[in-house]
C-alpha cells in the first residue's frame, strides 16, 4: 500500500475518522508502528529527553533531528513523517527555510514548529516552497523557561480566544496541521471544529482529529513522574506491536483519551 499523505489526513478529518501519531526515533520501532497501522510518525525533539537524557528539549540540534529523521525514514513504508524543528532553528524566515530543507532532505514529509501568531511569515515562506508545516500551540516545551514550567495552557476565556485567533491566523498563513499540547478538552473541541485543517492533540482531550503520544511514555517507560495525559498500553502481556495496535484501536474507537487523561477549562 502507498504511504499515508496529507490529503488522506484531510479526508479523515472530513470523514470524522480519528487518526494516530506516535513519536519514533529509529528504523526498527518505525517498522513495528507501520505493522500496527499508526498513520503518522513524529520525530519529536522529545528525543532530547528520552534518547539523550537532557532535562529539556533545548539542547537538541538540527543535526540530531536529521540523524533520527533519516533513521525513521529508512524504516518507514506506510506512515506520514513529521519532524520537529529544534530550538533556535527557525529564528528568521531564511534560517527556517535552510533548516526545514535539511529535515525534508533527511526524509520528513512535514516539519513542525512551536509558537503562536508570530510564526505566520515563516509558515508562508515554507509553504510557498512546498514544505508542509504543522504548528505546535498551547504548551510549547521550547518555551519552558518563559512559561515557568510544563503547565496547562488556554485556561480561561481570554487565553482560549487568543489560541483560536492564533490558530486561524496560522491556517491562513498556510499551516496544514495544528498540534495542541496540554489545553482543556473543551477547548480542543472548539478549536478542532473551528479550523479547516486536521488537529492533533496531546493532553488536549478526545475531540482532536488525531492523537499523539511519546512512544516511551505509552510503553510505560519513563524517567520521573508520568504526565496525566499518558496511558501505558504495554499491559496484559502484550508485545510492543500489540501495545501499538491497542493504542490505534482505542484512538479510532474513541476510548483513548478518556476523561481522566484530559484537563478542565
Ligand atoms: O517532541 C515531541 O515528542 C512532541 C510531541 C509530544 C507532540 O512535540
Ligand atoms: Na517536540
TrEMBL record:
Keyword check for Phosphoprotein: no
> Which major enzyme category is it?
transferase
Residues annotated as binding 3-methyl-2-oxobutanoate: 45-46, 84, 112
Show the InterPro entries listed in the entry: Pantoate_hydroxy_MeTrfase (IPR003700), Pyrv/PenolPyrv_kinase-like_dom (IPR015813), Pyrv_kinase-like_dom_sf (IPR040442)
**What are its cofactors?**
Mg(2+)
Q: What terms describe the molecular function in GO for this protein?
A: 3-methyl-2-oxobutanoate hydroxymethyltransferase activity; magnesium ion binding; methyltransferase activity
Q: Which residues are named in the active-site annotation?
A: 181
The free-text cofactor remark is: Binds 1 Mg(2+) ion per subunit.
Q: What is its EC number?
A: 2.1.2.11
Where it mainly occurs, coarsely classed, is cytoplasm
Report the catalytic activity.
(6R)-5,10-methylene-5,6,7,8-tetrahydrofolate + 3-methyl-2-oxobutanoate + H2O = 2-dehydropantoate + (6S)-5,6,7,8-tetrahydrofolate
Q: What does the entry list as the binding residues for Mg(2+)?
A: 45, 84, 114
Q: Name one Pfam family in it.
A: Pantoate_transf
Which compartment or compartments is the protein found in?
Cytoplasm
Any GO BP: pantothenate biosynthetic process
Q: What does this protein do?
A: Catalyzes the reversible reaction in which hydroxymethyl group from 5,10-methylenetetrahydrofolate is transferred onto alpha-ketoisovalerate to form ketopantoate.
| Quaternary state and interactors | Homodecamer; pentamer of dimers.
Specify the protein name: 3-methyl-2-oxobutanoate hydroxymethyltransferase
What organism does the record attribute this protein to? Answer: Marinomonas pollencensis
